[in-house]
Amino acid sequence: MADAQGPVGDRAPGHSPEVWGGVPGRNKNFTGRAQQLNALRFGLMNQITAVVPHTLHGYGGVGKTLMAVEYAYRYRHEYDLVWWINADQPGLVRSSLAHLAPHMGLPGVSSTGIEEAAETVLNALRRGDPYRRWLLIYDNADEPEDLRDVIPEGHETGHVLITSRNHRWQAVAETVSVDVFPDVESVEFLKKRIPRGITRAEAEELAEALGHLPLALEQAGALRSETGMSNREYLRLLAEQPVSLLREGAPSEYPTPMTAAWQLSVSKLRENLPEAMDLLRCCAFFGPEPIPRDVFFPVEEGPVRPEMVDLLANPIRLSRVIGQLARYALIRLDNSNRTIQVHRLIQTLIRAELSAEEQRVAREEVWSLLAAAAPSAMNNPASQDRYLELLPHLRPSGIAESILPEAREFALKVLTFLYTSGNYAMAERYAHEFVERWASVSGPDDPHVLEARLKYANRLRELGRYQETYDLDRALLEQTQRVLGPEHRLTLAVRSGIGADLRAKGEFQQARESDEETLRLHREALGPTDPATLRAMYNLAVDLALTSDFSGARDLHERVYMLHKRHSATQSAVHLLIYLHGLALAVRLAGDYIEACDLGEDALAYGREQLGADHPRTLRTQIDLATSLRMNGDLDQALELAQDAHSRHLRLYGLDHPETLAAAMCLANTWRMHGALAEALQLAEDTDLRYDQIYGAEHPYNHGCTSNVALLYRMLGDPSKARRLNEASLAGVEGKLGRDHHYALGVTLNLASDLAALNDTKNAVRLGRGSLRRMRALLGEEHPMALSCSANLILDLRAEGEDDEADRLLAQVEPLYARVHGREHQFTEAFLSGQRMNFDFDPRQL
User: What pLDDT, in 10s, does the model give residues 763-773?
Assistant: First the structure.
């Protein structure tokens, strides 16, 4: 891709943009619109200092999209970049922008994730780098608020064009109204569309009868060209049709000429090629977005009409039908992307023609086709792309209303896809909708309802709604045990969810006991290597770490990872990353920082490549790698990763999401070790308050954050406040977890340092001796926490004049520091130079 060169207007008339993407084919019959095109061009070229969106506004069928296409082609030589974005569904706009990144020489989705790639593209467009002259077209936008954050304002030679039927755009953008054709343009269009066989007088008469509506004129021209119908015959039929079309229930927002012209095309098509109407009727119950042609393939199960079964089984006849629908201007055919698309206006009119029973049959047919088109696996790019193509048709097809088993199973697969792709918010919305609709029809004990409820609860947990999730899971466990039995997969999955809920509530020992029983049940019911059993083993490994059994956690994490690698024929990228990340974290908690960095770097590279940089699991891995790097002395790299993770979380989740809080505390700890104490304290205090709001005042994570704040106050010269905070933190942790938990021992280590800073070395020695004894019993004498406690105790013993004990302890600890960390490690150097050692927390939910 060459760099853009030269000022605006220096290009030859035939020059094409460096980047041209997604723009539909130009309509060879495009006519007129000179006044609107000139007004649009004048407005865009005369914006002074920043992007001002310009909107083509008008009702359906009036030709807004065709005019935007014509503008793009007519003025393409003035732009370095032209990019078309289907804005029907706001949630997919960023994905379209993200796919522009590689064309601009920027990191793509595979390396940064959709959100980051889209934001990088927007920033590059705002700067005009590498392209100064660019045009973005957002087609069929609805509410202005939907696009507020995806319009790259700020660059004087960049242009944004929006097509919309929503009048609210007139308040926020320069608007060019697109109405029906003037008389002369209607005639000119028809003479182009029907080059032989229509006189000017006939064209005037036909245009008047059709109300000069462009889409109606297009269909009339297509019908006359394809059938050779005379003008008189067409007008006769047109006069006879509107009465039936405008019966009660027909869409009032569409004008009579459109409905009449559409009905004539349909009537003639039904007469000449009835199977084409079968396909068109089916398409009316998809969404208005492009439909993959591969969806129209024979299905093994599902209520598909016999005529559609025959058509789908004959690819030659199917291609003929699709081509004929395109020639009659009833669909838009995109051969390059292998999609077909039906205008929402036509879809509405087709549906209005059908009885309630016919609509039900058509919807069930679409549900069957969607279900059959959904891949079973979600672990490869092709399968993920297919789900992204099917997703826009989920809600328009009304699949939440379905009672078909295959349709509901497809909907549940979509929830799984949204989870694996990291779109927890959308998964939560769909899961809630499925639960409500399905339960109202099939009752609360229907197995599909139970599974949707479990997925809903899991997504709530990912969004930080812990108490709500726990209440749902407890009720769901009673249901699944009663309806499905205690050994059913779904019942076991709910048990695993309750273990996660207990962890989230800070009930670590209860979670461990629950997950021990859950793992036993999994092994008995499913076997030792079933994927669900491995997930239960992973959960227990997390519990072991949270209850201070670091060596047990490390061993079990390693076993889970190896069993997954050995027995998972089609490995889930999400679960492989979870298991590798869990192993890296367990290794760090056990005190091996070098190995934790190696494993963490491997895990982060894998997550970015397979899931994207913005995927929640990738970001969790990044936070923990930043912590491992910080503990290993790689402070610059740790700070880079911590800052990046925090900014991504802020953008993706906002300030109060649990993952954002974990990222913030990681960054505060990294800033502290970099010496940026004021910045660290400000962030740590704010995060501590938010932890209290999210988890509750008595949660262990909240007390751990408070101890981090206390550490910063001591380092900034206020040991009295540090002591008060640490004493409160220690009381809270001991009350929740007991005195021998590593959280409580970490707080005592810091509290002893507060006492020493206040010259109360007698009590510092007393506290240090007790803490060291417990740490060694819990973690072993070589664990970094025990080494830190030993180092501080040596200093306090000397301050109290107890040099003999200090010397004996020094002789024990010095070789341990060299063996555990190495002689050049930051902690070894700090120990040898007589500095105090600190302990900080990175409280987070796994």
Answer: 999 999 999 99
